[in-house]
Specification:
It contains 9 helices and 11 strands. It is α/β, with parallel strands linked by helices. It has a domain at 3-153: NAD(P)-binding Rossmann-like Domain (Rossmann fold), CATH 3.40.50. It has a 6-stranded parallel beta sheet, with helices on both faces. A 3-stranded antiparallel beta sheet has the order 9-10-11. The protein is globular and about 55 Å long.
Length: 324
């Protein structure tokens, strides 16, 4: 039995994610839903799904951020906290445009985690992930509860997309495509490692087209929704998949994932202090970090472009988290 919290449960990602988690969690578990709007209705709706998972609604105060009672009650003794809370990206917005609003939201939620469930796994979805993960780390450090083995920027959507696009191109079963997307979680910082896809080769043209499609996928959805949101459903699925891996880990299994992590604190060699890499997760968090993949020339060129942007993103997050 576990307690999983979704912070931002009434949002475009939070609602489908919460629904999927209701079907995923083991019987007797608790699914705590927290948001500052509409969450009682979401919880009531999801609670009617016929699984033996208790659903709780915790409604925060949008007008008074200092009122943290509902937040703290939701987070109390959680094993896994998933954070999709924040404003979505709209046409013309970059992930950096989101930072000013979303960093403050993340900071408040992480402060709650630091006091209510400091040993929880933290799966951060709120964009820009390249910056919000360093924000979270700095807040946890201030509270002397930082464990880099349990803080993850969820970049699973990039892998889900790469799997889907490769399968479409090659006529494969997408669930059996193995591909890593490393680096950051933004078009200019992510690197689909197509040269290492098992059993497949790509022409230079195929590699460039696939890579660009993965990088542009988020913007494609934003534009397709025409101002009505961003990639909510696919992101909910990706977060559900990552949560499933964490639940297996909590149950004693060792699982392989790719996530944006604090490589520096984990004493892992990486191009930047925070970097998305393949990892193995066990009951106590990250047990192994796989090395940076062997890139071909095209991927190496992407890395060269990604590093300065990542470093800037990380610096922005660290400074905000420290209160600079």
């Amino acid at each position: 039995m576990v307690k999983v919290v979704v912070c931002g449960a009434a949002g475009g990602i939070g609602q489908p994610l919460s629904m999927l988690l209701k079907t995923l969690l083991p019987s007797g578990s608790t699914l705590a839903l927290y948001d500052v709007v509409n969450v009682p209705g979401v919880a009531a709706d999801i609670s009617h799904i016929n699984t033996s998972v208790k659903v709780e609604a915790h409604l925060g105060d949008m007008k008074d951020a200092s009122n943290v009672e509902a937040r703290n009650k939701a987070l109390k003794d959680a094993h896994l906290v998933i954070i999709p809370a924040g404003v979505p990206r709209k046409p013309g917005m970059t992930r950096d445009d989101l930072f000013k609003v979303n960093a403050g939201i993340v900071k408040g939620l992480i402060e709650g985690i630091a006091t209510q469930c400091p040993d929880a796994f933290i799966a951060l979805i709120t964009n820009p992930v390249n910056s919000t993960v360093p924000v979270a780390a700095e807040v946890l450090k201030k509270h002397n509860v930082y464990n880099p083995n349990k803080l993850f920027g969820v970049s699973t959507l990039d892998i889900v997309r790469a799997q889907a696009f490769i399968a479409e191109l090659k006529g494969l079963d997408a669930t059996k495509v193995h591909v890593d997307v490393v680096g950051g979680h933004s078009p200019e910082t992510m690197i689909p490692v197509l040269s290492q896809v098992e059993g497949q080769t790509f022409t230079d043209e195929e590699a460039k087209t696939l890579t660009q499609r993965v990088k542009d996928a988020g913007t494609f959805v934003v534009n397709a929704k025409d101002g009505m949101g961003s990639a909510t459903l696919s992101m909910a699925y990706a977060a559900y998949r990552f949560a499933g891996s964490v639940l297996k880990a909590l149950n004693g299994e060792t699982v392989r994932e790719v996530a944006y992590i604090d490589a520096q604190s984990l004493k892992v060699e990486a191009p930047t202090a925070y970097f998305g890499l393949a990892i193995e997760i066990g009951k106590n968090g990250i047990t192994k970090v796989h090395p940076v993949p062997k890139f071909n020339d095209y991927e190496q060129a992407q890395l060269k472009e990604a590093v300065p942007a990542l470093q800037q993103n990380i610096e922005t997050g660290v400074n905000f988290g420290k209160g600079n």
